[in-house]
Design goal:
Length: 31
């Protein structure tokens, strides 16, 4: 079972990746 720290780091990385992908998609669509 993963530790709380691992879960937090994973969740943060996932959220960051999602935000980056969304921003990129938005920028591309805007251009």
């Amino acid at each position: 079972m993963p530790t709380a720290r691992t879960v937090t780091v994973t969740a943060t990385a996932t959220a960051t990746a999602t935000a980056t992908a969304t921003a990129t998609a938005t920028a591309t669509a805007t251009i």
